[in-house]
Design goal:
The chain is mostly helical. It has one domain. Helix content is about 55%, strand content about 0%. The protein has three helices and no strands. Helix 1 packs across helix 2.
């Protein structure tokens, strides 16, 4: 993947997360891209699917308010 394509993918991922790019060094950009999964087009989808499975396994309990309010 060339630097221009990598930069486009990083920009798209950052936009999707509501962030802006402040790095212009290509080596650092490649490291960020690897962390964001931009080098693998399916990485974001896999990461989101993993998070959805993890969230599905979390049990949340709320204590109900006492309805006997005087």
């Amino acid at each position: 993947m060339d630097n221009a394509e990598l930069a486009r993918r990083v920009e798209a991922e950052l936009r999707a997360q509501g962030l802006t790019r402040a790095v212009s060094d290509h080596t650092t950009l490649r490291q960020i891209a690897r962390l964001l999964g931009a080098e693998d087009p399916r990485a974001r989808e896999r990461r989101l699917a993993d998070l959805q499975r993890e969230l599905a396994g979390i049990e949340v309990r709320f204590r109900l308010l006492d309805e006997d309010v005087s």
